[in-house]
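ok so I'm stuck.
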Amino acid sequence: MKRLPLPKGLPFLKGLPFLKGLPLLKGLPFLKGLPFLKGLPYLKGLTASAIPWALAILWTLAILWTLTACSFTLDYERYAIVYGIANYAVASDLRYTVSDAQAVRDLLKADDYNVTLKTDAEATRAALEADIASIKTLAGEDDLFLFYFSGHGGPVAPGQGGEPPGGDSADEAILLYDDPVPGSLLTDDELAALIREVPCLKKVVVLDACYAGGFIGNELEADGIPPDYSGSSYGFFSNLGKAFSLYCSFAGDSADIPPGEAIVLSAAGEREYSWEAGDGYEHGVFTYFFLESASRGDHNGDGYVTATEAYAYARQAIQSYWNRYCSGTEGVFSPHVSGGPLDYVLFKAR
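replied:
not stuck anymore, here's the structure
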């Protein structure tokens, strides 16, 4: 089993106050006469004051080694609702969104998910409400629930308020198949209310639609990427303070899909388009790399791909293989991620 490479020189240990004079390093019997401490070149010539630091580093290495060496099994059920709409009754048609949904269905079924797939005219609000009701009768608290959507998305009443604290200035929505009557648009708050009915404590929402980042709300984005990413550099940690405070509050009304409700992966920002393409993709661009993360996204080599690993792979791949060729155009976009402080396994690494 692969182990995580450690940063050169372990800079993260510098100046950490909790390591100063740690009592747990004093007089520990297992350190007494340990053979691996003898003759190590980096311990030679250490001053008395430097020895606690050397031991702290060894202690940290031992913990990291242990954590990266452990394995686990997925002893819970996993349920997924997968919707894809290409041929709309009320909007311009799309080319690859049904293919997106079918490929995601196949990926999840191969990993023993119980999958409900709806495409085109099947993918209505009434169908989604019925599918959620069905999952409610089957799933338990310990199980995992995933909702995937590929289709049109957009803002609702832009510039107008009405969102709870921590939300953005307008609702965003995904467009279901329904005829042009109330109900064809499913807003971020309405989707949050629907998935809240599912009893699973582990929930993941994956949206490949324009403006999908608005389902998170900019205050909840843990990635720090602007809602209208232009391809310039950005600071990953710029929004972590706000995100962390919201994670810890677990307030049900903190914004859009709340942080304690689900991990949300959106294809694009709150004010961005997401894109689909032929030329070797034949999928939504985000979905293409989300699918590819099953074989290339296992960052820590533990044999599983988590929600944040899938996001990290898709984001980096879009930056490397899509945005670099779209620089300076509206085609540049970047996925966003949010959710609670936990991470969930999506599928086994291929």
